[in-house]
């Protein structure tokens, strides 16, 4: 099954390159948008959202009660321990403002101090903000009543600066967001994904015991294999992405998805197969490092090696053939002969000679590449990674020489 991604722990995507890459290995991306939350997307997200339908907003209301119940249980059972580590205390200068200045982050993640914060967590970290509708009224009241949260009026790190916020320690906010995401994923079969490197933790169920283990210490939870499709997808697509993907227009991503839709879905099927095989073979594994190693091995075998084979097949019947065609037509050295002929010609003669040359090359190329087209089509159709080759060639800067070669191959119906 080709699964829709479920972005967490934020509403707004933090990394332009990440969301563009995700659009190349996920069919759609859902994100948690509580009722009343005002979304403010940058241009590249609006293009993916409006022109491709890639970004979908989903209200978490159905999952809020269950996730809230788990954190409430933790507060009831181990409230003193939680408060001693994650309680909120008054601090800051007299002119401090009522804002939250941090984002939810995994336990142990360092956060900068803030002299202007009126309230800080027990360990002196600025508070993170959760939207009130992300939790039940009972949980909000319990957090406020036990000193684990305070009401805030602005969020310095959010696009929705003037929302009401629940300010709390970033680690406690993070754990709750993971629990909410996991509950929503269980109800939708969406695949939790994140652009935060330390954060592949929201897939497996989050109950009070797991919250306690993460926040207070104890036996580590299993590494979990629920997000394997996401890991396989991001590793496989990295094989072909340009170094500066953030600078690639989102319209390019939309064009590739639309133009090569059958190959895109064949690639998604390949991701699902690899993830399913890994999930069966690695069930119960407890070492994140070992899991990462096995995933990388599988991606290398199923995608990188296949991509190398496909590149060789394409070069064998495409680029090499067109080079031979041009060289044969003009004798050797082709470029020198062409240059000297054009330099000594003026006016309409140049145009006439150039037109004849191009026509000759085009006719020869069409003749030679007619058979190549069938070979290329067969190779592309048979490969589960043909979409990756499309991405690799579609996102690279195009030089004048490549544009000419591509035009000739298109005239023969054999372009990649």
Question: What would you note in describing this structure?
Answer:
- This protein has 416 residues and is of the alpha/beta class.
- The chain has 15 helices and eleven strands.
- It has helices at residues 16-22, 43-50, 61-86, 137-145, 170-188, 208-216, 228-237, 250-259, 261-281, 288-317, 319-330, 334-343, 347-382, 386-394, 400-411; strands spanning 5-7, 29-32, 55-58, 88-90, 99-100, 119-121, 128-130, 150-152, 154-155, 165-168, 191-193.
- The strands form four sheets. It has a four-stranded parallel beta sheet with strand order 3-2-1-11. Strands 7-10-8 form a three-stranded antiparallel beta sheet.
- Helix 7 crosses helix 9 (261-281), helix 7 (228-237) crosses helix 10 and helix 11 (319-330) packs antiparallel against helix 13 (347-382).
- The two termini are 27 Å apart.
- The relative contact order is 0.11.
Radius of gyration: 28 Å
Strand content: 5-15%
* Biggest beta sheet summary: 4 strands, parallel
Structural category is: alpha/beta
Mean pLDDT: 76
Residue share in helix = 40-55%
Side-by-side strand order of the widest sheet: 3-2-1-11
What order do the SSEs take from the amino end to the carboxyl end, as H and E? EHEHEHEEEEHEEEHEHHHHHHHHHH
Low-confidence stretches: 91-97, 113-119, 318-369, 399-405
Q: What's the β-strand tally? A: 11
CA(first)-CA(last) distance:
27 Å
The shape, in one word, is elongated
Query: What count of helical segments does DSSP give?
Result: 15
């Amino acid at each position: 099954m080709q699964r829709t991604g479920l972005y967490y722990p934020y509403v707004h995507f933090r990394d332009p390159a990440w969301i563009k890459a995700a659009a190349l290995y996920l069919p759609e991306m859902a994100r948690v948008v509580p009722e009343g939350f005002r979304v403010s997307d940058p241009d590249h997200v609006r293009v993916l959202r409006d022109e491709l339908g890639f970004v979908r907003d989903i209200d978490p209301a159905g999952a809020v009660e269950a996730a809230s119940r788990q954190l409430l249980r933790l507060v009831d059972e181990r409230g003193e321990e939680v408060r001693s580590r994650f309680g909120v205390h008054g601090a800051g200068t007299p002119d401090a403002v009522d804002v939250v200045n941090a984002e939810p982050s995994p336990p142990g993640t360092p956060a900068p101090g803030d002299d202007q914060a009126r309230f800080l967590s027990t360990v002196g970290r600025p508070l993170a903000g959760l939207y009130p509708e992300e939790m039940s009224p009972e949980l909000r009241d319990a957090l406020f009543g036990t000193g684990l949260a305070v009401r805030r009026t602005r969020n310095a790190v959010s696009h929705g600066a003037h929302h009401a916020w629940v300010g709390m320690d970033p680690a406690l906010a993070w754990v709750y967001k993971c629990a909410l995401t996991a509950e929503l994923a269980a109800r939708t079969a969406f695949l939790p994904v994140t652009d935060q490197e330390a954060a592949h933790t929201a897939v497996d169920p989050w109950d009070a015991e797991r919250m306690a283990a993460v926040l207070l210490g104890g036996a580590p939870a299993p590494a979990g294999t629920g997000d394997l499709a996401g890991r396989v997808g991001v590793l496989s697509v990295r094989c072909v992405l340009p170094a500066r993907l953030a600078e690639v227009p989102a319209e390019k991503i939309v064009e590739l998805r639309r133009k090569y839709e059958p190959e895109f879905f064949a690639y998604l099927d390949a991701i699902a197969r690899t993830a399913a095989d890994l999930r069966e073979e690695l069930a119960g594994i407890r070492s994140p490092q070992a899991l990462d190693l096995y995933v990388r091995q599988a991606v290398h075998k199923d995608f990188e090696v296949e991509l190398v084979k496909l590149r060789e097949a394409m070069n064998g019947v495409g680029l090499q053939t067109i080079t031979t065609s041009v060289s044969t037509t003009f004798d050797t050295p082709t470029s020198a002969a062409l240059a000297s002929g054009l330099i000594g010609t003026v006016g309409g003669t140049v145009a006439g000679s150039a037109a004849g040359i191009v026509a000759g090359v085009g006719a020869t190329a069409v003749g030679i590449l007619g058979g190549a087209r069938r070979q290329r089509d067969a190779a592309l159709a048979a490969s589960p990674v043909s979409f990756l080759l499309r991405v690799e060639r579609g996102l690279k800067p195009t030089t004048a020489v490549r544009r000419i070669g591509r035009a000739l191959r298109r005239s023969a119906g054999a372009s990649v």
